[in-house]
Write a structure and sequence with these properties.
It is built from 27 helices and 15 strands. By secondary structure, it is an alpha+beta fold. Helix 13 packs parallel to helix 17, helix 24 (1228-1282) crosses helix 25 (1329-1347) and helix 26 crosses helix 27.
């Protein structure tokens, strides 16, 4: 609980600035008594200023609060007050406030100095805190435990403001609002209400934006779904393609294994069959030959004759065979051309599938236009032509007309434009309307503020007028003795003084003081001359003594100089000599050797030489320092230049790096993919080469050389580019090969591809020769028959086939072999040829990018090398700068050492010079004394005693003359003093007359000033009253204008949002139709392109089919030519057949025996154990091989279809990805989510603010009502005790909400009401002055008891003003009861300040009658004390209570 203990005042109001006055406050009552004007109210003012920092009213912002410097005759007065109190925690504290008032020529300046708070801790230690005035004003009320408003208006209320409870409404409202501290909570209500409105408006805005974001989100989700569907289709196609590839690989592997097995089985079966057939054939042949050759004459011919005949016939057959073989090769070429055309036709079928898929996609895009137009139908006006045509088009099953879509889009665009213009018009109209409302509000606000400013401007004028009145009254009181009668009396006094002065001067003129003084002066002058002459004679005798004394002084000075020089010489001479010799021997010195220091007697010259040498060395070192400084500056500049060059090189390197990074993103991956393709090509070529037989050693060596060259030139090291190691890639792929006069990696790769392409071409040609030979044999068997038997004949052994089925089986076996080779190695080499072409095309396309990459990377490497060079140069420059700085520091250190040595040398040289001067002066004085002694030896001179006696006599005579003159001057001075006194009295009398005249003039001026000030005050008060009378109307007009502005703002904001929503909807619909139309246009283009492609592919396929037909026809013609050529052999064959028959009979007989043995061995051979095709016949394997071939063709077709679907899906996914990458859809889900969160949180915050507002409003109303009830209860009790009249039963404070206050901005009004005989009347204007004073005191007591929970202090200044005797007694009685009731409260303090000692006596009597009330033992009296020279200061005395009158 807070409590005040002591107050010390200095330099405030009438208190002395040189002496501190203190007063101690006791509990429960402190009484202060004093006459009017003695400074009682100053105590209240100091308490209020010490706790709140608020200057008293009418103090001119503190200037009149400090003692006036003009009164004390100084230019500056410092004032101070100290207040010791206990804070609400019981801690003792002291607040010190200091002020300063400076008087200038025409104005005075008031200044508050920083305040101090000293606190005493529980352990007894003290701490001090210095605060700014503003901080102190906030801190002290917090320590006391009450608000500043309660301190100003309740506890320490000034006498002039004591009746504030009965002032006009605005002042009363402000006081009560400050006491209740309701303004802060009302402002909080206003802030909460504004926040609620702002949050609601924000929620609406977010809802509007959320709709657009939702539409964008739905569209983005649709794009995402379609993109995901496309990506899923891509994945499905990839999976299908991979499955097709896997299936093809599996089928090819199985096919290869079956083919291999079939080859083995065929070879084995063929061997067996051939053996059996050969045995059977040999048997039949032998039988047949025996029958056929039974009559032949050749049977008996020798074998040699038969061999010669057979050779002749064979030569003829070979010639014919060459002709037939040539024709069959030509037929094979025609068949190859037909096969190639068939493959191209198959490829066209795959492209046809892709084109049909593209057409279906275009049709789907066109169909989306109908859906978009159906969605946009709702945004069209029902009466518009576009709506009618669109409805008709949508209801029809015919394809949608593009004109309808264009019309709808145009209509929506026009509608969007119209709505945008309408929105702009609404915006413009809203802005104009709001500007008008704002101008009205500004006009009304300016009117209110202008009136307030005018009232505020009138207050200083009124205060100035009051000040002038008070000052005039004070001056007139001072000039009350200035009258015309006093002026006449003063003039008469002047005449009397003139008469007395004239009489005195007449009497004094007869005296001879001037003659006596003149004679005495002449005697003094004569005696002074004689004394001077005598002293001159005496000085000739006494001169030698002075010279001796002077000689002693000079000898002493020479000795001191010698001591000082010896000390410095012994201390510094050796060091200085060494330093001088070092400087001489160093670079730039003279090289002289400095001798050892001589004795002290000769040390002065040595010191001068040292000084000269060291000065020369110092000059050299200073020059070296300047040179080092210049070199350091130059090196520093070079270092900065090198650093700047390095920074520039770094910037160039960064720019080159950015240029490398700026290369197309796919360049590296494309270049790196070359390595993979080349490696794959190499592996595929090696795999295909395994099927090549009988390759020449030269070709194989050429291939190996090609691979070796590719490895050496890093053809397979392109992956370095994709790894990001640009420097190593450049060095490996470009720099190193070029430095070795080799092509770079790109050129080497191109050469490798060309070389491998030629190798593949050669091997392909070699591989295709096998099927050609087989094809030749196949055609021979198919077309050639035995002329004699008509059976098909083997072209190798020239034997007939036993059956046509056997010939057919042989034909089928040969046909399978031909097809196997055609589909095997030939197809692989075809793929390799295609791969080479693709790689070569990619290389041609990538060559510009490769060159750009190499050029950019070379620039980067060059820039990095330049950075390294510049860094090295900067490092060298930095080292040079460091060396220069080190040299500069060494030079500076040497210069400092030289300067120190030079100072010592100068000091030593100066001491030597002083020594020489002192010795010279001593010797000169000795010579002078010697000459004077010789002159003094001459005769005719008086003795010293005679001269002394004459001198004494002359001095006595002179003293007598001086005394006589002094007496005469004294007498003359006394007369002059009397005369001056009379003149002074005359001047005083004249001055009194002049002062009276000036006072009379000043009195008239002050009277005129007082009258003018009174008129000014009346005018200002009248004007203020008029302005305040119109204030409610102005405030009502301003409130109405603000309400109108708020309503207009709300209305126009809603209209603008509505217009914006319509515009956004129309624009969104137009945009959707525009996108659908564009997409449909793209679909039309796709359909047209697909149809065109299909037509072209159809023509291409027909062309290939024609080529197949033409090739097959050409092959048939060639076969006919072969058949024709075969007919010419018949005759030759008959002869040959007979010869061969005989030879064959003999050979077959031997061969039959060998075949029978071979057949027996083959039949005895066991099958292999791990054969997976064990038990499978050739027919089963052939059927399985046929199915595999068909399956491979089907899988290839499916793969082509899947590739077309994947290409289409990638295009769709790319388009949707591009749409999603636009600003409209990018991050739309996150923006939608955030908007949803903002909307929900804003709505929740709006509800929370509404709850807070309601709770605070209810709490504020409840608090206000309870406090008013408590205050009125206390007022009723106190009024019944203190007021003795019968006309007022009780008084109360009535509080209610302002008529103009809203629920959102609660405000209260207050007035004091009195009850008379049951009627309630407004007390203001209906009560007497005494009733007003008493009511104000009672209300303040009630407020103090209600709001001062932590503080029990209350000060009453002149509480008995305007009270009659009965009410004074009742007030004393009421105060005594309050004191008695609250005596148990330790911190209760009542301070009563009054001039009425009878009230104090009454209060003492009433307190003595109260039980439990303790009467203070003393009271305090404040009086005015004179300190001299007409100055009076306030004084505080402690008086025992028993001395109270």
């Amino acid at each position: 609980m807070s409590q005040i203990e002591k107050l010390a005042i200095r330099g405030i109001r009438a208190f002395s600035p040189d002496r501190e006055q203190a007063i101690e406050f006791e509990s429960p009552l402190t009484m202060i008594v004093g006459a009017n004007g003695c400074g009682k109210t100053t105590v209240i003012e100091c308490l209020k200023f010490g706790t709140t920092g608020q200057a008293p009213p009418g103090s001119a912002s503190g200037k009149a609060f400090v003692h006036d410097p003009k009164v004390t005759g100084v230019s500056e007065v410092k004032a101070q007050l100290k207040l010791r109190f206990k804070n609400y925690g019981g801690q003792r504290m002291v607040v010190v406030r200091s002020m300063q008032l400076t008087q200038k020529k025409t104005t005075a300046t008031f200044k508050q100095l920083d305040g101090v708070i000293r606190a005493t801790k529980p352990d007894g230690s003290k701490t001090s805190y210095t605060h700014k005035c503003g901080e102190l004003d906030k801190t002290v009320p917090i320590m006391i435990g009450v608000s500043r408003a309660v301190l100003e208006s309740v506890i320490f209320c000034h006498q002039e403001d004591s009746s504030w409870p009965l002032q006009e409404g605005a002042v009363l409202k402000k006081r009560f609002d400050d006491i209740f501290d309701s303004a802060r909570y009302t402002k909080a209500l206003d802030v909460l209400n504004k926040q609620k409105k702002g949050l609601a408006s924000k929620a609406k805005d977010i809802s509007g934006d959320l709709k657009g974001l939702h539409a964008d989100k739905v569209a983005a989700q649709d794009h995402l779904k379609r993109k995901a569907s496309a990506e899923k289709a891509i994945e499905s196609a990839d999976a299908a393609i991979k499955a097709s590839d896997d299936k093809q690989a599996s089928l090819r592997d199985e096919k290869a294994r079956i083919s291999d097995k079939m080859r083995k089985l065929q070879a084995q079966e063929q061997g067996l069959q051939e053996c059996r057939a050969e045995v059977d054939g040999l048997e039949r042949s032998l039988k047949y030959l025996e029958e056929r050759l039974a009559d032949s004459a050749l049977m008996d011919e020798d074998d040699d004759v038969l061999a010669a005949t057979a050779a002749r016939l064979q030569e003829e057959e070979d010639s014919q065979f060459e002709i037939i073989n040539k024709l069959e090769r030509e037929a094979g070429k025609h068949r190859e051309r037909a096969e190639a055309a068939k493959k191209e036709a198959s490829r066209v079928d795959g492209e046809t599938g892709s084109a049909e898929a593209e057409k279906r996609r275009g049709e789907a895009e066109v169909s989306d236009l109908r859906d978009a137009l159906a969605d946009a139908k709702g945004d069209l006006d029902d009466t518009s032509d576009a709506y009618a045509r669109l409805s008709q088009a949508l209801s029809s099953s015919e394809p949608l007309d593009r004109d309808v879509a264009a019309l709808v889009q145009k209509t929506l665009d026009e509608k969007g434009q119209e709505l945008a213009e309408a929105e702009a018009a609404t915006e413009k109209e809203a802005n104009e309307a709001l500007r008008r409302e704002e101008s009205v509000v500004a006009e009304k606000r300016n009117a209110v503020e202008g009136a307030a400013d005018e009232v505020a401007a009138l207050a200083p004028k009124v205060a100035e007028a009051e000040r002038i009145q008070r000052e005039a009254d004070d001056q007139l009181r001072k000039l009350r003795n200035a009258t015309d009668a006093s002026l006449t009396q003063a003039k008469k006094k002047v005449e009397d003084q003139n008469k007395r002065l004239d009489d005195f001067r007449s009497e004094r003129g007869a005296r001879t003081h001037d003659q006596v003084i003149k004679k005495c002066v002449e005697d003094e002058r004569r005696l002074a001359d004689e004394i001077e002459e005598t002293n001159r004679s005496l000085g000739l005798l006494e001169g030698n003594e002075d010279d001796e004394r002077e000689l002693g002084v000079l000898e002493h000075a020479a000795t001191q100089c010698l001591d000082r020089f010896s000390e410095a010489y012994s201390r510094d001479a050796a060091d200085l000599r060494e330093a001088a010799e070092d400087y001489e021997q160093s670079e730039g010195g003279g090289g002289a050797v400095v001798n050892e220091p001589p004795p002290v007697e000769d040390g002065a010259e040595f010191a001068d030489r040292l000084k000269s040498l060291i000065a020369s060395a110092k000059s050299r070192l200073d020059d070296a320092k300047a040179t080092a400084s210049s070199n350091n500056a130059s090196c520093t500049a070079d270092e900065r230049s090198a650093q700047q060059a390095e920074a520039s090189a770094r910037a160039a390197s960064r720019e080159a790096s950015r240029a490398v990074d700026a290369l197309p993103s796919d360049t590296r991956s494309k270049l790196a993919s070359i390595k993979k393709k080349c490696a794959a090509l190499k592996d595929a070529e090696k795999a295909a080469a395994e099927d090549v037989e009988d390759e020449s050693e030269e070709d194989a060596q050429a291939v190996e050389e090609l691979y070796k060259t590719a490895d050496d030139l890093n053809v397979f090291e392109w992956a370095r580019i994709d790894k990001g190691d640009d420097d190593l890639a450049l060095e490996t792929l470009v720099a190193t090969p070029l430095s070795q006069s080799k092509p770079d990696a790109f050129q080497a790769t191109a050469a490798f591809v060309r070389g491998i392409s030629s190798v593949i071409a050669r091997r392909k040609e070699a591989v295709t020769q096998i099927p050609e030979a087989m094809d030749y044999l196949l055609k021979k068997i198919q077309t050639k028959t035995n002329k004699h038997t008509g059976c098909k004949q083997c072209p190798v052994c020239k034997r007939d086939f036993d059956e046509d089925a056997e010939a057919q089986r042989t034909i089928e076996r040969l046909d399978k072999i031909v097809k196997k080779h055609a589909q095997g190695s030939g197809a692989a080499f075809n793929d390799l040829t295609t791969s080479c072409s693709e790689i070569q095309a990619e290389l041609d396309a990538l060559e510009p990018q490769w060159r750009a990459w190499v050029s950019t990377l070379q620039k980067k490497v060059s820039a990095e090398k330049d950075v390294d060079e510049k860094r090295s140069a900067a490092s060298n420059a930095s080292d040079a700068a460091k060396d220069a700085a080190s040299s500069l520091r060494d030079a500076e250190a040497s210069s400092v050492r030289a300067s120190s040595s030079y100072e010592k040398a100068c000091h030593l040289s100066d001491l030597g010079s002083q020594l020489r001067d002192a010795v010279h002066a001593r010797d000169a004085k000795k010579e002078s004394l010697d000459r004077a002694a010789q002159d003094a030896g001459t005769g005719g001179r008086r003795s010293r005693r005679d001269i002394t006696r004459d001198l004494k006599r002359l001095q006595d005579e002179k003293e007598t003359a001086v005394n006589k003159r002094a007496q005469a001057e004294k007498d003359k001075a006394e007369g002059l003093q009397q005369e001056n006194a009379m003149i002074s009295r005359k001047a005083e009398a004249s001055k009194a007359v002049s002062d009276l005249e000036q006072q009379l003039a000043e009195k008239r001026r002050w009277e005129a000033s007082r009258d003018d000030a009174a008129k000014t005050k009346r005018d200002c008060e009248k004007r203020e009253k008029d302005i305040k009378a119109d204030a409610p109307q102005r405030k009502a007009a301003l409130d109405k204008a603000r309400r109108d502005q708020d309503e207009a703002t709300t209305s126009w904001t809603a209209r603008k949002k509505k217009a914006r929503a319509k515009t956004n909807g129309a624009k969104a619909a137009a945009y959707a139709v525009q996108q659908a139309v564009a997409q449909a246009a793209r679909g039309d283009k796709r359909i047209a392109d697909a149809e065109k492609t299909l037509a072209e592919l159809s023509e291409t396929k027909a062309q290939y089919e024609r080529e197949v037909s033409e090739a097959e026809d050409a092959a048939a013609d060639v076969n006919a030519q072969v058949a024709e050529a075969s007919k010419s052999e018949d005759t030759r064959m008959l002869e040959k057949k007979e010869v061969e028959g005989v030879l064959e009979y003999r050979a077959q007989r031997k061969k039959k025996e060998a075949c029978e043995a071979k057949l027996a061995r083959a039949q005895d051979r066991a099958p292999e154990e791990d054969d997976e095709f064990a038990g499978k016949s050739q027919q089963d394997l052939a059927r399985r091989l046929s199915r595999i071939t068909q399956e491979l063709e089907r899988v290839a077709a499916e793969k082509g279809e899947h590739e077309g679907q994947r290409k289409q899906a990638r295009e769709v996914a790319r388009e949707h990805a591009n749409d999603l990458a636009t600003a409209r859809y990018k991050g739309v889900e996150e923006r939608h989510r955030r908007a949803m969160i903002d909307k929900e949180t804003t709505e929740m915050a709006c509800k929370d603010v509404e709850h807070y507002w309601t709770a605070l409003d209810k709490a504020l109303g409840s608090f206000h009502r309870l406090k008013i009830e408590e205050i009125n209860r206390i007022i009723k009790e106190l009024w019944s005790v203190t007021y003795m009249g019968e006309d007022i039963d009780t008084i109360e404070i009535v509080s209610g909400e302002d008529n103009g206050s809203k629920r959102a901005a609660r405000s209260y009004n207050y007035h004091v009401r009195m009850r008379k005989q049951g009627a309630a009347l407004d007390m203001k204007g209906r009560c007497s002055a005494g009733q007003r004073v008493l009511a104000s005191i009672v209300i303040r007591l009630a407020l103090a008891q209600t709001f001062c929970i932590k503080c029990g202090i209350l000060a009453l200044d002149e509480p008995t003003t305007n009270l009659d005797e009965a009410n004074r007694r009742s007030l004393a009685h009421g105060l005594s009861r309050i004191i008695a009731d609250r005596a148990r409260q330790s911190n209760f303090q009542l301070v009563v300040i009054t001039h009425d000692e009878e009230f104090i006596a009454t209060l003492r009597t009433e307190m003595a009658a109260q039980a439990g009330a303790s009467m203070p033992e003393h009271y305090w009296r404040i009086s005015r004390e004179e300190v001299g020279q007409g100055k009076f200061y306030s004084k505080i005395d402690k008086i025992p209570m028993d001395q109270l009158q």
